[in-house]
Amino acid sequence: MNHQIAMYFGHAVLDNPRHDEIEARAIEWGCSIEFAILEDFDWLFTRTLKVHEDRSTFNLLFAIVTNKHVQAPAVEVKYGKDNTSSIPTLLFLDDFLIDNDSEKKVVITDEMLNQLGLEIEGCYGYEFIDFKRLASNEHWLMTR
Q1: E strand residue ranges, 84-125
Q2: Cα 109 from chain centroid?
Q3: What are phi and psi of 52, to 5 degrees?
Q4: How would you label 118-139 residue by residue, b for 16+ Cβ within 10 Å and e otherwise?
Q5: Which pLDDT score, from 0 to 100, does residue 112 have?
Q6: Quick one: which of 75, 67, 68, 28 has its CA closest to 49?
Q7: For residues 76 and 56, what is the distance between their CA atoms, to the nearest angstrom?
Q8: pLDDT at 44 over 70
């Protein structure tokens, strides 16, 4: 069984336009900022997970990080817990990429994950908190 990787994100970064949009949506909906963040994150990344040939968002983000034409692992959008609140989580179902040229597996390194988190933070405005490599049968919820 392949190991999964959970990437945890926080609130929209203050200097990103998404922050103001989420605050306005929370006021309009009469809900908490936390709920509006989770709904926005879910909508955004569920939409991006729709693959159009080999041009999915995560293939492109990993291509930026690796400088290779790669196939990203399958990803699920989750809501993790950090003991105080729900936080947006991306769960990669494998810990490797496929190099489209050589068709070989490329292990996703910690450096790649940190770079990917910062790319997502910069592109989509969600603060990158951390990632966790999950052992077999380990749950993706974040604990501190």
Answers
A1: 86-92, 96-99, 105-107
A2: 15
A3: -115, 100
A4: ebbbeebbbbbbbbbebeeeee
A5: 96
A6: 75
A7: 14
A8: yes
Whether the CB-CB separation of 13 and 123 falls below 8 Å is answered with no
Tell me whether residue 50 is exposed, middle or buried, using C-beta atoms within 10 angstroms of its C-beta: 0 to 12, 13 to 18, 19 or more: exposed
- For the chain, what's the residue count? 144
Residue in the structure block whose two tokens are 């959970």? 6
Widest pairwise Cα distance in the chain:
51
Please tell me whether residue 119 adopts helix, strand or coil conformation: helix
What residues have CB less than 8 Å from 101, skipping those under 6 apart? Answer: 68, 69
Whether the CB-CB separation of 5 and 92 falls below 8 Å is answered with yes
For residue 4, the model assigns a pLDDT of: 93
116 residue type, one letter: L
Cβ(69)–Cβ(100) below 8 Å: yes
Q: What phi and psi, each to the nearest 5 degrees, are found at residue 37?
A: -65, -50
pLDDT tens profile 82-121: 656 678 899 999 999 999 999 999 999 999 999 999 999 9
